[in-house]
Write a structure and sequence with these properties.
- Strand 11, helix 12 and strand 12 form a beta-alpha-beta unit.
- The protein folds into 2 domains: 139 residues, 3-Layer(aba) Sandwich (Rossmann fold); 222 residues, Glycerate kinase, domain 2 (Alpha-Beta Complex), CATH 3.90.1510.10.
- The protein starts with a strand and ends with a helix.
- It contains 14 helices and 13 strands.
- Helix 1 runs parallel beside helix 14.
- It is α/β, with parallel strands linked by helices and 383 residues long.
């Protein structure tokens, strides 16, 4: 019997791999000879770097980079040594949580630190990049990141424009003569789960600007500046498209990756599933286990466990899901591939108790054990 396990992290409790290994222990308790494959699961957002890096045998690195206001901070990212791939979350260098509410102002925040992370990974031998771009504090169109990689964004007097979206107001010329030559060897897969364009009513300024500290006046200004920036970019990069789905992600960082670095903007779950080779393992599997901290109707609308279930059903696998809580609407998941879902709690507990790592892992192990005792009672030992 072969069981493939890919469980998303239980936020604040178990990491993806901890949850996967806990579930594996439950299966092994009933079927000691079972072949079990544990893979990390994440959706491209928070936790993806840790999940992919630890789950795929990589290593964590740190670099001294600029935060959204140019202050030096230590930021972490992962390296998958086997294929020289860096796994980066832009929020590590330019995320909203790095700023106090009083400091939030997209007119002045920069993505320069994201470019510094890429540059550090290149220096350490990486030529392939997986980048999550959620949770940004910026709206600079990715100009900060690109500047760190050698692109020059100049005003009418030939001087570098200011940091932040306000710098785009002065942009008159783009130069690429000093870009890192090694960028030609690099590939970028960008985890992007929004489809907003760069400009307009559904653009990054209008939709995401308020949460980053922008008022109505600055939203209108930034939208105009980003439009002009896009037109100037098109003079140098024919593939540039401000209306590309995801161009407005992370304050236009999606546009920068697509236009200047030839990146693919993709759903985060797709990238994770492909990079971990999960579907290959499912081809001859009997059972697939997935889950997350809470399963409800939102899960059925495309969260990570659903991505796993859909793949599993292509190969005729039975899919079982495990969660810290099953909430209203969770049965909708049955329609998209999850055959049965289980809550791992044994009794009513406080949130603090539910979040205890050791208790959660034991509960998950015990619940998986009971589920597979039922499998054994009903079908015996699958061959």
């Amino acid at each position: 019997m072969k069981t493939v396990i890919a469980i998303d992290s239980f936020k604040g409790s178990m990491t993806s791999m901890e949850a996967g290994n806990a579930a594996a222990a439950g299966v092994k308790a009933v079927f000691p000879d079972a072949e079990i494959v544990v893979r990390p699961l994440a959706d491209g957002g928070e936790g993806t770097v840790e999940a992919l890096t630890t789950g795929m045998g990589g290593r964590m690195e740190t670099a001294l980079v600029s935060d959204p206001l140019g202050r030096k901070i230590s930021a972490s990212y992962g390296i998958l040594e086997k294929n020289k791939t860096a796994v980066i979350e832009m929020a590590a260098a330019a995320g909203l949580p790095l700023l106090s509410k009083e400091e939030r102002n997209p007119l002045h925040t920069t993505t320069y630190g994201v470019g510094e992370l890429i540059r550090d990974a290149i220096r350490k031998g990486c030529r392939h990049f997986i980048v999550g771009i959620g949770g940004s504090a910026t709206n600079d169109g990715g100009v900060g990141m690109l500047s760190a990689l050698g692109f020059e964004f100049l005003d009418k007097s030939g001087q570098p424009v200011r940091n932040g979206a306000a710098g785009l107001a002065d942009l008159a010329e783009i130069r690429s003569g000093h870009v890192l030559p090694v960028l030609k060897e690099c590939t970028f897969r960008v985890a992007c789960d929004v489809e907003n364009s760069l400009c307009g009513e559904l653009g990054c300024s209008s939709v995401f600007g308020p949460q980053k500290g922008a008022d109505e006046k600055s939203i209108r200004q930034m939208d105009q500046w980003l439009f002009s920036y896009a037109q100037l970019t098109k003079e140098h990069f024919l593939q540039a498209d401000e209306n590309c789905p995801g161009a407005g992600a992370a304050g236009g960082l999606g546009f920068a990756f697509q236009s200047y670095l030839g990146a693919r903007l993709e759903p985060g779950i797709r990238i994770v599933l492909e990079e971990t080779g999960l579907e290959r393992e499912m081809a001859d599997a009997d059972f697939v286990l997935t889950g997350e901290g809470r399963i409800d109707e939102q899960t059925a609308m495309g969260k990570a466990p659903v991505g796993v279930a859909k793949l599993a059903k292509k190969h005729g696998c039975t899919v079982l899901a495990f969660a810290g809580a099953l909430q209203e609407g969770f049965t909708a998941c049955h329609e998209i591939g999850i055959d049965a879902a289980f809550c791992i709690q044994k009794r009513a507990v406080s949130l603090e108790e539910a979040m205890d790592r050791d208790a959660a892992m034991q509960n998950l192990t015990d619940t998986c054990k009971e589920a597979f005792r039922l499998v054994k009672a009903v079908v015996g030992v699958p061959q």
